[in-house]
Design brief:
This protein is an alpha+beta fold and about 600 residues long. The chain folds into five domains: about 1-130, no CATH class; about 135-240, Beta-Lactamase; about 250-355, Beta-Lactamase (2-Layer Sandwich); about 360-435; about 445-595, Heat Shock Protein 90. Helices cover about 50% and strands about 20% of the residues. The protein has 19 helices and 19 strands. It has helices at about 1-30, 35-40, 45-60, 60-80, 90-135, 150-160, 160-165, 170-175, 190-195, 240-265, 285-290, 300-305, 310-325, 360-405, 410-435, 450-460, 465-470, 485-500, 560-570, and strands spanning about 135-140, 145-150, 175-180, 200, 205-210, 215-225, 230-240, 270-275, 280, 325-335, 340-345, 350-355, 450, 475, 480-485, 510-520, 520-530, 575-580, 585-590. Strands 1, 2, 3, 4, 5, 6 and 7 form a seven-stranded antiparallel beta sheet that branches. The structure holds adenosine-5'-diphosphate (ADP). Adenosine-5'-diphosphate binds near residues 542, 547, 556 and 558.
Length: about 600
């Protein structure tokens, strides 16, 4: 490419030199016929024109060539003695000298002018290319606010071509308004011309194009000064920010949406960034904390709530972030004497914390615990205090019965027997009460892996005498492992198999079958008997404490099933019965399965 340019330039130069040589010959051809009129006067007349033409087109070099060729031709053909280069006198020499000087001077001037115009052309070209290449729209005006030029981007945005816009007032080409209004925005050219300084436009400005379309723009204006430092006009630089505006609007809408969602969450929420600063809090959060959002946002959590430093809450928060796992805890904030249920979820943003106040729940739990404790103490004391006089009553009445044997009528004998039975019943009730008062302790036990098989065998060992007395047949499948406590599992089998041995039908050999079936994450155990069965209307109430369907003919305190219910519910399980009266019952209970390979 460059090669071709250089070649065409060289050709152009040769052509200019050829003209520079030919032009004097042409001048001679014009001058020779004039010899009839002018003889040998003003011999160089036409050669000045040849020099001027050659220098005008070609600059210094061709001008000089033309001058010297012209001088040679004039001396040879026009100045006598013609046909030779001899000069007659000083006048001729002066004439030649003058021609050569003037010709050289013309050539020199032409050369300078040509260089200057080339330079100017190059500058203009550079300027135009720069304007075309700039990605921003540019409009320049003179000091009268009349448009001088628009670059292609400005042409595209305004809808005016540079040629059409030239000479028109700037307001006509560059009409801007405040976004979303029809009010005319500040005239930027006016501001530039008045202040003589670079000015930015007001935010959210819209350009109204030639076709009336509105385009959001971002822009600035700058003054143009001439060589003398005089204000000569203004230049406006602007760009279409539609895409940016749309992105901003979409972002603002998304922010508003998420704020609305947060606001509508009834649970209190705040977001901690990775520097533990409170980055977000919803209205439920500020209500619960009682501090306005403006005083919380941006502040480090530990500075706002210094009393949480070093507490389980801090440990849990740091652990959640480090392990990238959610945490949940009940935490007391000492300065406010309040309890909160706190759940924290780690994310790339930081930690999302949901919390609710549970002070009342904690207070009632504590009160309940105290009450349970008091009740346990009372029951223990009461049963202990009652048992002794009761034992005395039983012993003395039995002694009285023996002593008066045969002396009393049948009715009196029955009365005494009733007293002894009543005393035994009270004693059993006391045992039951004592046992039931310990039911609260079930809650305190932490679940661990328990193999149901050995727990079941222990329970059966304890029931051997009853099994033998009842002549019962006990069958069972291999039992699985569960998450519970082994004493509790043993207690469950002891109560249920014990009842199956108690509530039998005299007409049938008692058959008891124990099995287990997997249901999701649970094992459902079944204790089946062929005993007396339970009427449907009693099938729920038998799980309440002290509810018995029988009198003293079958011993029992009525708390066995209530205890079983408390145990399975401790592990989030369920207990229920399916039974038909006179045919038998199946008691079911569910416990969480111990995961394979798990060892507590
Ligand atoms: P208890 O056996 O000490 O009376 P439980 O709480 O164990 O107390 O049982 C409550 C009542 O449920 C029993 O009194 C009995 O009437 C009934 N019951 C329990 N198990 C069975 C069973 N396998 N068959 C028939 N009735 C039963």
């Amino acid at each position: 490419m460059e090669n071709r340019l250089a070649q065409s330039d060289a050709r152009r130069r040769w052509r200019l030199y050829a003209i520079a040589i030919l032009a004097p010959f042409l001048a001679l051809a014009v001058r020779l016929p004039l010899n009839f009129v002018l003889a040998d006067k003003v011999p160089y007349m036409t050669f000045f024109a040849a020099t001027a033409v050659s220098a005008g087109f070609g600059g210094l070099g061709p001008g000089l060539v033309s001058t010297f060729v012209g001088a040679a031709l004039a001396v040879f053909y026009l100045i006598p003695p013609t046909g030779s280069f001899v000069l007659r006198d000083t006048g001729d020499s002066l004439g030649l000298g003058l021609f050569l000087s003037v010709g050289s001077f013309i050539s020199y001037l032409s050369g300078r002018l040509q260089k200057a115009s080339l330079h100017e052309n190059a500058l203009r070209l550079l300027f135009q290319q720069t304007l075309v290449s700039i990605g921003d729209a540019i409009i320049s005006t003179d000091e009268q606010k009349t448009v001088r030029l628009l670059n292609p981007v400005a042409e595209r945005l305004t809808g005016w071509s540079s040629a059409e816009a030239r000479g028109r007032p700037i307001q006509e080409i560059f009409s801007v308004v405040q976004e979303g209004t029809d009010g005319v925005a500040v005239d930027p050219v006016d501001r530039v011309l008045q202040s003589g300084k670079v000015v930015g436009l007001a935010n959210h400005t819209e350009l109204i194009t030639r076709t009336g379309r509105r385009i959001p723009i971002d822009d600035s204006g700058a003054p143009i000064f001439d060589q003398n430092g005089q204000l000569a006009g203004a230049v406006l630089v602007f760009r279409d920010i539609t895409a940016r505006r749309e992105a901003e609007l979409a972002l603002a809408a998304a922010e508003k949406r998420s704020r609305n969602i947060l606001g509508s969450i009834s649970e209190a929420f705040f977001l901690l960034d990775s520097e533990w600063r409170i980055a977000e809090i919803n209205s439920a959060g500020t209500r619960l904390i009682g501090i306005p959002a403006s005083e919380l946002l941006g502040r480090v959590y530990w500075d706002v709530f210094p009393a949480t430093v070093g507490t389980p809450l801090e440990t849990a928060f740091r652990k959640a972030l480090a392990d990238r796992k959610p945490v949940q805890l009940e935490n007391r904030y000492d300065p406010w004497e309040r309890w909160y249920d706190v759940s924290a979820y780690p994310s790339d943003e930081g930690l999302s914390v949901y919390f609710r106040e549970i002070t009342e729940k904690k207070q009632s739990e504590a009160a309940l615990q105290r009450l349970n404790e008091d009740l346990k103490q009372f029951t223990f004391a009461a049963t202990h205090d009652v048992r002794e006089p009761l034992r005395m009553i039983t012993v003395y009445v039995q002694m009285l019965q023996r002593r008066l044997e045969g002396q009393l009528d049948t009715l009196s004998d029955t009365y005494i027997t009733q007293v002894v039975n009543g005393a035994h019943r009270i004693s059993r009730l006391m045992d039951g009460l004592l046992q039931f008062s310990r039911i609260g302790e079930i809650e305190a036990v932490e679940p661990c892996r328990v193999d149901a098989e050995p727990a079941f065998r222990e329970a059966i060992d304890d029931l051997q005498i009853a099994i033998r007395e009842a002549g019962a047949v006990v069958e069972h499948e291999l039992l699985p492992s569960v998450m519970a406590d082994d004493t509790h599992v043993r207690q469950l089998f002891q109560n249920l198999v014990g009842n199956a041995l108690k509530y039998t039908r005299p007409s049938a050999t008692p058959r008891i079958r124990i099995s287990a079936q997997r249901e999701g994450s649970l094992w459902v155990f079944a204790v089946h008997d062929n005993g007396i069965g339970i009427a449907p209307k009693h099938q729920e109430q038998i799980f309440l404490p002290f509810r018995r369907l029988h009198g003293s003919e079958i011993p029992g305190a009525g708390i066995g099933l209530a205890t079983c219910k408390r145990i399975v519910e401790r592990y989030h399980g369920r207990i229920w019965v399916e039974s038909s009266e006179g045919e038998g019952s199946t008691f079911y209970f569910s416990l969480p399965a111990a995961e394979e390979g798990f060892r507590a």
